[in-house]
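**Backbone description:**
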Amino acid sequence: MSRLPRRPALVVIGASAGGVEALLPLLAGVHAQSPPVLAVVHVPRSRPSLMAGIFARQCGVPVSEAFDKAPLRPGSIVFAPADYHLQVERDATLSLSVDEPVQYSRPSIDVLFESAASAFGNRVLAIVLTGANEDGANGAAAVARAGGEVLVQDPDTALADAMPRAALAAVSSARACSLAEIGRIVQQLVFEDPA
């Protein structure tokens, strides 16, 4: 891949089955000058998510679980907590909700992506990774309609290919990439003040 996406003010990532393994090479490249990275990984709603703890040991930037009204910070990775939708507000803060599941999921990738598109418009980079349902496709389409960019894990490399295939079908401008390519892109992103 020769062309990098426009430098975004926010990176949003969605993953489901096989997501931990897919995220490792991507998130390891996040650095202090990276845009904020928000991630939804489908986890069982009945017990706490372990995502922040898993990735805090693997990444060189702060990794946390989202909490309501937290400000977005460059050079950080924030995961949606179990059983809460994660949303981005126009004032560059986060919010959590217990609205109905979307695509049988709470947290929902669609909810995160759609709120990011509404709040940040063409300054969003959305990344859809491995997963066994279609969550993320509608949200990726919302990001594309707002002028943001969408990268999708090559379905042939995904543990579960339904989610990346649905995203590619929903977004004609989306690019299918290997995890290594997406990781290189994430590593090269430099924060631009969203103001």
Notes: The mean pLDDT is 92. The longest strand covers residues 10-15. Helices lie at 19-27, 51-56, 109-120, 137-145, 162-170, 179-188. The two ends are 30 Å apart (CA to CA).
